[in-house]
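FORM 7B: Structural annotation worksheet

SECTION A. Query
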Amino acid sequence: MGLGGISIWQLLIILAIVVLLFGTKKLKGMGSDLGGALKGFKDSMKGDEDEEAKNLESKAEQDAGTAKTESKEESKH
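SECTION B. Predicted structure
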């Protein structure tokens, strides 16, 4: 028995029917489209993380610059 009571032979028959219905070209096209979509999603998620990290770094630099300016003004008084 395979997955949830489905044997390997039943899976092979289902695969054969799917190939006969859609054809190998269409299945290959759908697979490449799905792969491209997943890659695009992964890249956009990585881009969002990079953007957030840059925003945090620039905010930290601005806060550090503001703190230095304030300490210089206090020392002048």
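SECTION C. Observations
The helical segments are 8-22, 24-76. The chain has a mean pLDDT of 79.

SECTION D. Sign-off
Analyst initials: ____
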